[in-house]
Amino acid sequence: MIKRICNIILSAMILFMAGCGKDDSKGKESLSIEGSWELASIQTKSVTIGNQTVDVYLTFSSGNFVIYQRLGAGRFVSFTGTYTFTDGILSGKYSDGRPLGSSYTVEGDRDRLILSTEGGAESDVYSRISSIPESVTSNTL
Fold first, then answer.
1. pLDDT tens-digit series, residues 78-105
2. How far apart are CA 34 and CA 132, in angstroms?
3. Helices (H), strands (E): how many in the chain?
4. What H or E segment, with its residue span, contains residue 124?
5. What fold, for 2-18+35-137?
C-alpha cells in the first residue's frame, strides 16, 4: 500500500510542476511541471486507500523529483528519483532504480496538475505551492 501511495505521490509531483500555456497557432498546450505541488484529491476506480488521511508533496526540478508522503498521523517518508516529461507523458524511476508504478498523462495549468495513470484507473489532482513546508521536510524519515 505504501508503494502504491508513493507512486501516487510521484505522479502528483510531476503534474504539479506543470505550468500550462496555450499556443493558439498550433492548438497544443505546453506544460512545465517544475516546482512544488501538494496533493488536493485522489480519484481511483479500483483500489481503496482505506480511512487513512494521505498527505503528499512533490517537487520537480531539472529532471529530479522528491516526494514526501505521510499516511495517517505518522511521519513523512521521502522518495527521490529522476523523471522525464515528454509530449504530456510523465515517467521515471526511483533512486534505487525501480520504475514508477505507471506512466502518467499530465494535464493542467499553472496552478493545478492532474496526473492520470495509464488506462485511467487513477487520477490525482495537485495544487501548486511556493515550496514544501518546513514542517514536512523536518518531519521526514
1. 999 999 999 999 999 999 999 998 899 9
2. 13
3. 2, 10
4. strand 122-129
5. Lipocalin (2.40.128)
